[in-house]
Amino acid sequence: xxxxxxxxxxxxxxxxxxxxxxxxxxxxxxxxxxxxxxxxxxxxxxxxxxxxxxxxxxxxxxxxxxxxxxxxxxxxxxxxxxxxxxxxxxxxxxxxxxxxxxxxxxxxxxxxxxxxxxxxxxxxxxxxxxxxxxxxxxxxxxxxxxxxxxxxxxxxxxxxxxxxxxxxxxxxxxxxxxxxxxxxxxxxxxxxxxxxxxxxxxxxxxxxxxxxxxxxxxxxxxxxxxxxxxxxxxxxxxxxxxxxxxxxxxxxxxxxxxxxxxxxxxxxxxxxxxxxxxxxxxxxxxxxxxxxxxxxxxxxxxxxx
Length: 305
Ligand code: HSE
Known about the structure:
With about 300 residues, the chain is an alpha+beta fold. It is built from 10 helices and 11 strands. It has helices at about 60-75, 95-110, 115-130, 140-145, 180-185, 195-210, 215-220, 230, 240-245, 270-285; strands at about 5-15, 20-40, 45, 80-85, 150-155, 155-160, 170-175, 250-255, 260-265, 290-295, 305. Strands 1, 2, 3, 4, 5, 6 and 11 form a 7-stranded mixed sheet that branches. Strands 8-9-7-10 form a 4-stranded antiparallel sheet. A hairpin with an 8-residue loop joins β1 (about 5-15) and β2. α9 packs antiparallel against α10 (about 270-285). The model has no long low-confidence stretch (mean pLDDT about 95). The site of L-homoserine has 13 residues, from α5.
């Protein structure tokens, strides 16, 4: 029997102006997973946390992606997967993505690394489909590649790993539930051309600013005219958190994925910690429980233990 253990990081998708296209990997929090091959040709899920996620492989994101992967590989074995999640499901920082990506990277090792990173993203997108109803790749791509990634296209899949300077993220996770499928359902199906022009101007300049390490341009580019105006009403104190974070020195930020987490980017760890203090001050005055994280943007994705 062979056994492989991995850590699968949280990710922030959309990054304000890149809905469904842009994302980055955090160093923490992360999920822990161990996979081992078993003779029975099945996927067995063992949850080692208290989140009560399904163990039926057809209803579990790791189960779905591994069933597809083992079938494609025509593997003559099955796998047992032990999952200890630290990224709370529904947090908006890529919890389902971490489960899917950790599972495919670990089992790929049992398959002698026969699948490329791009193929692993393709499998992991099946988990996103189960979790949210949409095959988006903006969490799974950075979870596997690390750093910032741009999803140029999902059909055919085309992932562009981006150059980026040293950056720190501050995340606040209010303990309220926002279902990704519902946060997608409220979005407009059409965008006026004028709005689209403003949006792609910002996305293009954000990608250039990351490559050039131009922090001022990063800051100017993090504007969203399409998604944030609609979704922010789902997140209590969103405008206050954003204003206080920018006053504390953040370059900018917004809703992490489909929320409820809010993220901010900063140039230094000291600023990112000041932003954390500012965020905590606002949420401490509410009745809502919350967690905060400060993390460097991780150049790597899922890593082996
Ligand atoms: N891009 C997706 C959305 C991410 O915002 O709906 C969901 O995690």
